[in-house]
């Protein structure tokens, strides 16, 4: 159990276009999901916390108008990178939190975004 | 800033135990110790967590010192597939509690 999927696994887009990444919890409900970004040879950096039915909470320095997050159901959160630029090229990873005694987080496999 | 410190890297021989240390001297009483690992170009994988007692599951054992200022993750019989970056994280529990990733320790398992 506790499987999280992401789609697509990789995407190449042109500068100025928008890209949507989906994160799904397949076998549990997640009222909270998190979005991370990871640049090469660096650690994961939390971008935002997404709660079902409410606005996301963004970390300092993350542009909320550029990285649109929607958490419309208990099993789906989406991240849309708007007006993408080459510097947005990165590995985007989501995690879904399963409710329980310690609120464990389970991660998706990641989405590799390349902006040309 | 991450609240844990780990050596940057270590290696071990296949089939031997891998003992990965972590210091968390500023841990508070209600923070758990979590371990995740990340194999190249994949999402992190949950390994184990604990509060103050030692824990064991099918993947690993977690030994937490009595003062809770450090811990050790033990992979009892390392395989080549255990080569990864291992992250030790301290975290409060709660609905919006964050995982803050440091640099982790790169474990290389050699044949």
Description of the structure:
The complex is a heterodimer of chains A (116) and B (111). With 116 residues, chain A is mainly β. In chain A, 0% of the residues lie in helices and 52% in strands. Chain A has strands spanning 4-7, 10-13, 19-25, 32-38, 45-51, 57-58, 67-73, 76-81, 90-97, 105-107, 111-115. In chain A, the strands form 2 sheets. In chain A, strands 2, 4, 5, 6, 9, 10 and 11 form a 7-stranded mixed sheet that branches. A 4-stranded antiparallel sheet of chain A has the order 1-3-8-7, with no helix packed on it. Chain A is globular. Chain B has 111 residues and is mainly beta. Helices cover 0% and strands 47% of the residues of chain B. In chain B, the strands form 2 sheets. Chain B has a 5-stranded mixed sheet, with no helix packed on it. In chain B, strand 6 and strand 7 (70-75) form a beta hairpin. The radius of gyration of chain B is 13 Å and the shape is globular. Classes of the chains: A mainly beta (116), B mainly beta (111). Chains A and B meet through strand 4, strand 5, strand 9 and strand 10 of A and strand 3 and strand 4 of B.
Please describe the structure with a list of short key phrases separated by commas or semicolons:
heterodimer; A: 116 residues; mainly beta; seven-stranded mixed sheet; four-stranded antiparallel sheet; 11 strands; globular; B: 111 residues; five-stranded mixed sheet; 9 strands; 47% strand
Query: Helix count of chain A?
Result: 0
Number of strands of chain B: 9
Q: Shape of chain A from CA axes?
A: globular
How many beta-strand elements of chain A? 11
How would you describe the oligomerization state of the chains in this entry? heterodimer
Structural class estimated from helices and strands of chain A: mainly beta
| Helical amount of chain B | under 10%
By helix and strand content of chain B, what is the structural category? mainly beta
The biggest beta sheet of chain B is recorded as: 5 strands, mixed
Can you count the helices of chain B? 0
Strand content of chain A: over 45%
How large a portion of the residues of chain B is in β-strands, by DSSP E?
over 45%
Rg over CA atoms of chain B: 13 Å
Poorly predicted runs of 5 or more residues of chain A: none
Relative helix content of chain A: under 10%
């Amino acid at each position: 159990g506790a499987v999280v999927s992401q789609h697509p696994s990789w995407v190449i887009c042109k500068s100025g276009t928008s890209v949507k990444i989906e994160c799904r919890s397949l076998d549990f409900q997640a009222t909270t999901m998190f979005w991370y970004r990871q640049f090469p040879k660096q650690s994961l950096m939390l971008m935002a916390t997404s709660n079902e039915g409410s606005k996301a909470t963004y970390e300092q320095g993350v542009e909320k108008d550029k990285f649109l997050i929607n958490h419309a159901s208990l099993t789906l959160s989406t991240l849309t990178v708007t007006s993408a630029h080459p510097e947005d090229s990165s590995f985007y990873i989501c995690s879904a939190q399963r409710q329980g005694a310690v609120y464990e987080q389970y991660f998706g496999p990641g989405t590799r975004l390349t902006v040309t | 800033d991450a609240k844990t410190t780990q050596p940057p890297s270590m290696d071990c021989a296949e089939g031997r135990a891998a003992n990965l240390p972590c210091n968390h001297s500023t841990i508070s009483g209600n923070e758990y110790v979590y371990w995740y690992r990340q194999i190249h170009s994949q999402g992190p994988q949950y390994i184990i967590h604990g509060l103050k007692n030692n824990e064991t599951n099918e993947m690993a054992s977690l030994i937490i010192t009595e003062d809770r200022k450090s811990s050790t993750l033990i992979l009892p019989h390392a395989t080549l597939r255990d080569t990864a970056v291992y992250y030790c994280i301290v975290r409060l529990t709660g609905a919006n509690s964050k995982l803050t990733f440091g640099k982790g320790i790169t474990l290389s398992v050699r044949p």
